[in-house]
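Homework help thread (please don't just give me the answer)

Our assignment gives two proteins as sequence + structure token strings and asks us to describe the second one. The first is just a warm-up. Here they are:
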Amino acid sequence: MTEASWRDDWPPFRVALVDETARCLAEQQSTATAGQRPRWAELSSVQQNNLAENIAGIFLAQDQALHNLVERGLPF
């Protein structure tokens, strides 16, 4: 998955959700490590994009997992 594909193909609210999730994750990791991991603003734009790409990949995997569970008829 490339950044261009999901950013262009997904609805704007979902793109915004990915970006905000990446920002929140960076902030939470920084807090949990007492600043050993950088805050969002301290990440380079490449690092921010990489984190957003990872989050988008997780969202995509979660969609597939939900689809698989529904197809198997597993109870929720």
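The one we have to describe:
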Amino acid sequence: MPLSPRELLEKELESVVRDIDAIEYQIASDPPETTGELLRLREIQRTYRGIAANIKKAIALEDSRPIA
């Protein structure tokens, strides 16, 4: 059975959150050697957090849609 749009968004959100956590773990367990590397990883995290926020908005919009 195919997933609903909400379920697809939730799966994508879970994946993005895992990526954010993985970057945090990488920074903590194997700190970057240079400030530039750390800044790049933080920028990637910031981008992923923006993606997560957009997915959450999409889920909220999907929840507010009338059921046909």
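TA reply:
I won't write it for you, but here's a hint about the kind of observation we're looking for: The chain has a mean pLDDT of 94.
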